[in-house]
Amino acid sequence: MRLLLIVTGSTLRAEQMDRPLAYYLKQRIEQALASGPYDDVSDYHVQVVADFRWIQDEGLHEMATISLGGPGVNELAHRWLEEVPVSLAYNERYFIQMDPDLNEPRVSIWGMDNPTTQIAVSVFLDRFLPRFLERCASLPPSVLDSDDEGEPEIEADDD
Questions:
Q1: Which residue of 34, 72, 130, 156 is 20 to 30 Å from 27, comparing CA positions?
Q2: Cα-based distances in Å from 95 to 18, 43, 71, 88
Q3: Residue 8's pLDDT band (boundaries 50, 70, 90)?
């Protein structure tokens, strides 16, 4: 199994505003994986997780990851603020951060507020998603520790 993670903040504001947007992004990514020209991606699973879950579980750090929401509401976006290059910035209103060569499959998408974060997601889907998924398709499956029931250690976060 290969995971593509969408990480949202744990604040109440992030839960209210960014988590629904993360599920929209998840749906669009799943549609692209199902209909795209990518190598065998049938084993990919797109999962929405909280920032502190990602930070605390080092096994998740090797997974393809999209951080959604700004550094004020998402601790992962805050950590990546200086680490991940800016690929697109629009009038200091929204940002898409990702390595132009995609050496590391990680993206941070955020805006100054929820409406601009929504615009940033739309721009990412149109301009950057195909190349990001091509990179994801080239990644080997990662091994996750399993719990007692044989399920991956990561839990569904479908609240």
A1: 72
A2: 15, 30, 11, 6
A3: very high
